From TrEMBL:
It comes from Actinomycetospora cinnamomea. It comes from the Bacteria. The keyword Transferase does not apply. Belongs to the GTP cyclohydrolase I type 2/NIF3 family. Gene3D superfamilies: NIF3 (NGG1p interacting factor 3)-like. It holds the Pfam family DUF34_NIF3. Homohexamer. InterPro entries: DUF34/NIF3 (IPR002678), DUF34/NIF3_sf (IPR036069). This is GTP cyclohydrolase 1 type 2 homolog.
Length: 285
């Protein structure tokens, strides 16, 4: 039996219930006919032109992404605009587009569980519980709190993160004493400086997230006893979810052929580390 777009959507929405999405979000089927067959699926973080190229080249019938194509108001879908061009290309190629965004962030397991698993962290509870989630690792909510197999220094943990995630020009950077001992960890895939206060309240040793800004980060680190910070590229922090979503679809009977895109869609394409030999910082090669 050939699966349909509707079958794939049902499986994804069972794993990542749309009701968990934030009010401002735009999740679900963006392009496509639910009755159309799905033989090949591509899973990616972003529905950017290079990913659409890959979907077309691989003969995908469905593109599943974490980030929405139409998150903000769009008043035209002419091919002269990037989003309009993307929609036309998908329709012409017969490719449906489905996104699971903040619902995948909050689901259990979800984006932050995939990140924690990649880093070797055993999850204990949500960082920002949603819907009265129990504090036993079974609840839903944004971010996760967990524990490493054994203590290690912040420097070693930063290397662990760099080794576990796909490489980017942004790389991985940390704030705090390199020799600080860390065991309890908070993680949040995507931009997470709005939850710095939750990481402090949780009493973790280090917080891993993306897109940390200068002022929130420096204010946080100035707080006595505050967790160290590890900042990674947004795309890299969410890429582990792609394999998780592929597994959801792969569990279907008569599952379609599923590919996880490895195209780097991080916004930054070039980076140079500044040599640092003073107390101002250290470059870990």
């Amino acid at each position: 039996m050939t699966r349909t777009v509707a079958d794939a959507v049902a499986a994804l929405e069972a794993a990542y219930p749309p009701a968990l999405a934030q009010d401002w979000d735009a999740v679900g089927l963006t392009v496509g006919d639910p009755s159309e067959p799905v033989r090949r699926v591509l899973v990616a973080v972003d529905p950017l032109p290079a990913v659409i190229d890959e979907a077309i080249a691989t003969g995908a019938d469905l593109l599943v992404t974490h980030h929405p194509l139409l998150l903000r108001g769009v008043h035209a879908v002419a091919t002269t605009a990037p989003k309009g061009s993307a929609i036309h290309r998908l329709i012409r190629a017969g490719i449906a587009l489905y996104c699971a965004h903040t619902n995948a962030d909050a689901a259990n397991p979800g984006v932050s569980d995939a990140l924690a698993d990649a880093l070797g962290i055993t999850v204990e509870a949500p960082l920002a519980p949603q819907d009265d989630a129990p504090a036993d690792g079974t609840g839903v909510g944004i971010g996760r709190i967990g524990r490493l197999p054994e203590r290690e220094t912040l420097a070693a943990f930063t290397r662990r993160v760099a080794d576990a995630l796909p490489p980017t020009a942004w790389g991985v950077r940390a704030g705090g004493d390199p020799q600080r001992s860390v065991a309890r960890v908070a993680v949040s895939g995507g931009a997470g400086d709005s939850m710095l206060h939750l990481a402090r309240a949780a009493g973790v040793d280090v917080y891993v997230t993306a897109d940390l800004r200068h002022h929130p980060a420096t204010d946080h680190l100035a707080e006595p006893g505050a967790p160290a910070l590890v900042d990674v590229a947004h795309w890299a922090s969410e890429h582990p979810w792609c394999a998780q979503a592929a597994g959801v679809l792969g569990a279907l009977d008569d599952a379609p052929e599923i590919t996880v895109s490895t195209i780097r869609t991080d916004a930054w394409s070039l980076g140079h580390a500044s040599p640092a030999t003073s107390a101002a910082g250290a470059v870990i090669s």
